[in-house]
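Subject: sequence -> C-alpha cells, single chain

Hey, anyone have a minute? Need the predicted structure for the following. Not urgent.
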Amino acid sequence: MPTVSVNLPEKMKEKLSELTAEGLYQNESEYIRSALREKIKNETGLTPAEEKELLKRIEQVEKGEADLVSLEEV
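Reply:
Had a minute. Here:
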C-alpha cells in the first residue's frame, strides 16, 4: 500500500491519538483511511466500490465494449 505523509496541527494529532487509544480505531492510519473514504463518499455520493464500477463501465463504453446504461443498472 502506498504511503502518504501529512503534517497535522498538534491539537488534531492529539485528538487522533485519543481516538486510537480509546479503541475506536485500530491505529491512526485506519482512522485516516476511514475519514478519507467518508469524505470521498460525501463528495461523490458513491462508495469506493460504486466509484470503481462506474469508472470500469465508462472505460468499457469508451472502448465500445458495452452500451450506455443507467446508474441504477450499474
